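Researcher: Structure for this, please.
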Amino acid sequence: MPVKISRRRILQSAAVATTTFAVPYVRGAFAAGKLSCGFWDHWVPSANEPMQKICQEWAAKNKVDLSIDFITSNGDKILLTIAAEAQAKSGHDVLSIPSWYAAAQAENLVPLDDVMKSLIDQNGKVSQAGEYLGKQDGHWVAVPGTWGNATFPCVARIDILKEAAGLDIVKMYPASGTPDKELADSWTWEKFLDVAEKCQKAGHPFGEPMSAASDAVNWVGSVFQAYGAELVDKDGNITVKSDATRQVLDWFRKFVKCMPEEVWAWDNAGNNKWLISGKGP
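Model: Predicted structure, token format:
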């Protein structure tokens, strides 16, 4: 008869990438128990398949009865799932939580200090941002992951940028060789605004989300950081009233005139649809 092993032990096993548990047991069908995971349903077609394969391979090696749900972010479904499971004290054993939401659910999450110790010992220190978000009140409440992580770069057609705004992306960052230092150094948010204004006049307005969608929050936050503007500091103090905030708001006042009005209502698919529509640059 197999020895009962907790879900906690399964998580520890995953962290250190072992193929057997520390305690002896007789391997049988699903000898290590059951585990349910909820992951973000990736936008990119077929992107879920590699994640599914990696997880199932691990489950097969460790004799775990693994179930996986991919949860869409449309309509804030993944956020609603997090809130519902926290309230019910029941649901998935492992759940993908967008970076800043782990802190909000800190009291409902199982401390993972032992898991993180194994990971850090094996792979090195976590980034400062990852630790700030995943460690609350001195304890790790979430394991930083890469599923869905992105830098949210703005993308556009090379030919339109060159024709409408005189911006030679290929020269700035050639496919092979070193970047053009002068052009690369001149690529600032002020230059970005200048290019946006020229593209808008040429009939190819930029399309960046300005709603409450996470894509909007991410890229807008990057611009605020670039100008040194913070609405709330790391200690929770409100710091919105500053010269830096006024400066970045003035930048946005000019920039939003270069985009279609519907950006204020876009969800996370809005900018993607704008790009493939051919209307933008």
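Researcher: Any notable elements?
Model: The radius of gyration is 23 Å. The first strand starts at residue 34 and ends at 40.
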